[in-house]
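Q: I have 206 residues here and want to know how they pack in 3D. Can you give me a structure?
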Amino acid sequence: MPLKFYDNIPIMSYIFLKGKCRYCGTRISPTYPIVEFLTGFLYFLSYMYFGKNLWIFISSTVFISFLIIITFIDLRHMIIPDIVVYPAITIGLLISLFKGYEFLFDSVLGGIIGGFTIFLIIFLSRGGMGIGDIKLATMIGIFLGVNYIIMALILSFIIGGFIGIFLLLLKIKKRKDPIPFGPFLSIGAILSLFWGNIIGKIWGWY
C-alpha cells in the first residue's frame, strides 16, 4: 500500500508511528530520523554561516549532502561507492569553475593533496585504508581547497584515533577488526567547513 504524505514527514512521522510502518508493522530503522535530523541541522548551520553568499551556501549544502550519504553507506556496508563519490567530485569542480579559475586551481590542488595523502598512508602502511578513502579525501579537498583539506585530514586522524582506542577499550572492536574511516574524514571536513578559522587560530596560538 502506498504511503501517505503524512507518513513521510521527517522525524515527526517516525515519532508518531513509534518507529513502525503504519500498515505492515515492520520496524523502521532509527537511521532514518538520525539522517533527517543531521541533514536539517547541518543545512541550518550552512544557512547561518554562509547564507549571505549564494555560491558558498550552495557549495556547502551540496558538500554536506554527499558527506552524509557517503558516511552512512560506509558505516553500514564498509564501502564508499563510486556512483556517489564521482558525481560529487565532478559537481565540486563545476562549482569551483563557476566561482572562477582561481577557485578551480585551489580545488584541484586541494583534491590532489587529499587523495595523495591517503594514498601515501596506504602505500607506507601496506593497507589500513581503502581506495574509497582516497576518492573521498580527493572529493573533500576539491570542496574545501588547499588550506582546509590539510586541517580536515589532521582532524580526521585525531578523531579516528580516539574513537578507535575507545572501541578497543570497550571491546566493541578487536585490534584487527576493520573500522570505516570515511565517517572520520567526513567529521573532519564538517568541522573544517564551519569552524576552520577558529580551529586554525587555536592551532596557530598553540
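Q: Anything worth noting?
A: Helices lie at 12-16, 31-50, 54-77, 82-99, 101-125, 131-169, 182-205. The chain has a mean pLDDT of 88.
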